[in-house]
Design goal:
Length: 104
């Protein structure tokens, strides 16, 4: 085989090898890209779930805060009524004591 044909055949083999290596690299990069896209999708889905849970918890906190305010209002109302009853009891006790002194 003449030297020129041998060099041409060697060059062709080198080019074929380079293309094989490029193809392998492209396939590897494509696979890595697919893996990263899947991870991104999974993370995005998880983030959506976390955000939905966060909204649910905020709603629960708001509901508890409303209930707390309502209960606090009821407590204040009951304390006022209790104070009124205690004042009436004090008056009744005072009247009872005065009656005992009078009827004595």
């Amino acid at each position: 085989m003449p030297e020129e044909q041998q060099t041409s055949a060697d060059n062709e083999q080198d080019i074929i090898q380079i293309f094989r290596e490029l193809k392998e690299k492209i396939e590897r990069i494509t696979q890595e890209k697919m893996n990263l896209e899947k991870k991104l999708h999974d993370i995005t889905e998880h983030l959506k779930e976390v955000q939905a849970k966060e909204i649910e918890l905020r709603d629960m906190i708001a509901e508890f805060a409303n209930k707390e305010a309502e209960l606090n209002s009821q407590r204040i109302s009951l304390e006022k009524k209790l104070n009124e009853i205690n004042q009436k009891l004090e008056k009744l006790t005072k009247v009872q004591k005065e009656l005992k002194e009078i009827w004595g």
